[in-house]
Amino acid sequence: AQSVAQPEDQVNVAEGNPLTVKCTYSVSGNPYLFWYVQYPNRGLQFLLKYITGDNLVKGSYGFEAEFNKSQTSFHLKKPSALVSDSALYFCAVSLGGNFNKFYFGSGTKLNVKP
Amino acid sequence: SAVISQKPSRDICQRGTSLTIQCQVDSQVTMMFWYRQQPGQSLTLIATANQGSEATYESGFVIDKFPISRPNLTFSTLTVSNMSPEDSSIYLCSVRTRDTGELFFGEGSRLTVL
User: Which of A49, A101, A105 sits opposite B102 (nearest CB)?
Assistant: First the structure.
């Protein structure tokens, strides 16, 4: 079965410090990986994706993520956190060319304190 | 990208009633989906809305409870029928455009059933 795990329900970081939000996946086939952010009372916004090519992908708002095939991970990172980054972050995976089926992680709440 | 408008944005409903959520996209899209996000939880795919034919439902979701229409490539509706408090959730419309892999989401419709 396909699945996505976000092992941390919540991540706390001080403003200006680097942040990491973890994601691991389990799929049969080539994974396409995505990160989304959800602000309170809003829908999900796309941050970045890995389809193929360079393992380090850069996305919106200074976020980046690294695809690690051996560790089946796709951790979200940012060198310097902002208070405005506080939100709920979802990792998602879809299989190969079948973009119709997305599997979402349970979400990680990021708290950035001033 | 695609701009997705959902309405209502929120509603409070009585047990036993039904509510229809509308989703309008600003461009013709290949795939439209309906997701549910229960309080504090991740996203669960309800169904794929197929243009001109019956929706494709995921395990655990049935047409009698969640009838879906998609009369054209830019519009879909989801009805939550005979509501109970367990149906209190955010319902999200999502689309995938022809040339990208990521999903785009509407702002969501937050339903509270009393």
Answer: A49
